[in-house]
Design a protein that fits this description.
Elements: H1 7-24, E1 32-33, E2 36-37, H2 39-51, H3 70-80, H4 107-118, E3 124-127, E4 143-147, E5 150-161, E6 168-174, E7 185-191, E8 197-204, E9 210-222, E10 226-227, H5 233-269, E11 271-272, E12 275-276, H6 281-309, H7 315-340, H8 351-360, H9 368-382
Parallel strand pairs: 3-6
Antiparallel strand pairs: 1-2, 4-5, 5-9, 6-7, 7-10, 8-9, 11-12
Helix pairs in contact: 1-3, 3-5, 3-6, 5-6, 5-7, 5-8, 6-7, 7-8, 7-9
The structure holds flavin-adenine dinucleotide.
Length: about 375
């Protein structure tokens, strides 16, 4: 059994690590303008990323990308998560964010949506969550009813990232509400200028992220804009869920690693009651616990990503990984904040942002309770 990362992945990790240390951490307190990277900062970082060969990393080679698989992407994601210089969700600086779903489009759909997205000419968002259907998409109320050559879509979505700028929406809607997530959901590509479709309300999250509400009133979408077959929504979704969970787990790892570093340095320099914090057992235990958890989480992420790359993934593997690593990331951020005392609560240090971001990853793309629920079901099946 070999626990070393393959040479090319180790080199990639090293390249991204240096990039984060040299280009991102130094600007992390000033790089953002609200929820977005400042345009000049984005342009400079994207140029640098291209120069380093860090472009379209997980886009398959057939589509002009590098075709990196999940273990390689995991090391990129964990390194990037060591800084708050970039938005924690959506397009980073290594090219457009192309969800694996879009590689499953038919040739005509690829021409209209995928290729312009890869070329940076179009933007997109993904809309599944609704006011009454978040953790449980099967209960969604947005319906798509077929009338000959088109569907009429009615309903609403909420908490949708990047909707205001999107040229098209990857929309999940119910084509058969009775079947719900067991064959009743379908995916559609909805153009922004479709009559009956509107981006309605904007909500600001505590992490600084902005999400939007969408409304559909008899929005007429041609049948050729349906992705795959009717009712295939959840099975198409499986193509990106594994990657999404591993991504979120990597956010936890990156936050934990940075927070261990910040806490360890600060504890050795901050003196209270005549001795540095690093000599207090209470502080030592916090840092040691974060370190141990990070170590275990990292091994687990690499194993899960490797299994995904080799077709050996059991569905519950990604649940374990997502729950364990998002929670360890938040605990490490929380301990780091506690060790820093009042200064940890200021916006002058990155800790407050990592604390909020890592908290959010315990909810998005699968709340940890729901992951545990599905994991428990898998365990019960193992021991019937
Ligand atoms: C910053 C941000 C960006 C987002 N971007 C998008 C996006 O682009 N597209 C999109 O479609 N969605 C997006 N979402 C929505 C996100 O995926 C949902 O918030 C998430 O799925 C949870 O749904 P909910 O908020 O409706 O929570 P609910 O489903 O109402 O659940 C609330 C809480 O109840 C608990 N819970 C739920 N079910 C169970 C259960 N069975 N057992 C035990 N406990 C349970 C969990 O603790 C959960 O956190 C985003 C959310 C945020 C915060």
């Amino acid at each position: 059994m070999d626990f070393e990362l393959p040479e090319e992945i180790r080199l990639l990790k090293d390249t991204v690590r240096k990039f984060v240390d040299r280009e991102l951490i130094p600007i992390e307190m000033t790089s953002m303008d609200g929820p977005d990277l400042k345009p000049d900062v984005r342009a400079a970082l994207e140029a640098k990323a291209k120069e380093l060969g860090l472009w379209l990393l997980d886009v398959p080679e057939d589509f002009g990308g590098q075709g990196l698989k999940l273990l390689a992407m995991a090391v990129v994601w964990e390194e990037i998560a060591r800084t708050i210089a970039l938005p924690p969700r959506g397009p980073g600086i290594f090219g457009p964010d192309v969800r694996p779903l879009l590689f499953q489009l038919n040739p005509a759909q690829k021409e209209r949506y995928l290729f312009p997205l890869i070329r940076g000419e179009k933007k997109t968002c993904f809309a599944q969550t609704e006011p009454d259907a978040g953790a449980d998409p099967g209960s969604m109320r947005t319906t798509a009813v077929r009338h000959g050559d088109h569907y009429l879509i009615n309903g609403s979505k909420r908490f949708i990232s990047f909707a205001a700028d999107a040229d098209f929406v990857q929309l999940v809607a119910a084509t058969d509400r009775a079947k719900g997530s067991r064959g009743g959901l379908s995916v559609f590509l909805v153009d922004k200028d479709t009559p009956g479709f509107k981006v309605t309300r904007k909500t600001l999250k505590m992490m600084g992220d902005v999400t939007y509400e969408l409304a559909f009133e008899d929005a007429k979408v041609p049948v050729e804009n349906r992705v795959g077959e009717e009712g295939q929504g959840m099975s198409l979704a499986q193509s990106w869920l594994a990657a999404g969970r591993i991504y979120q787990a990597c956010r936890g790892l990156g936050v934990a690693e940075r927070c261990i570093e910040l806490a360890a340095r600060y504890a050795q320099q901050r003196v209270t009651f005549g001795a540095p914090l690093s000599e207090r057992q209470a502080v030592q235990f916090m840092i040691a616990d974060s370190f141990m958890e990070h170590k275990l989480g990292q091994t687990n992420v690499y194993e899960t990503a490797w299994k995904a790359d080799h077709g050996k993934l059991a569905r519950h593997d990604t649940y374990t990984t997502k729950v364990f690593c998002t929670e360890l990331g938040f605990r490490a951020a929380d301990r780091c904040l506690q060790i820093h005392g009042g200064i940890g609560l200021t916006t002058e240090l990155p800790i407050h942002k990592m604390w909020k971001d890592s908290r959010s990853f315990m909810i998005t793309e699968g709340a940890v309770e729901v992951m545990r629920m599905v994991l428990a079901r898998a365990i019960f099946r193992m021991y019937q």
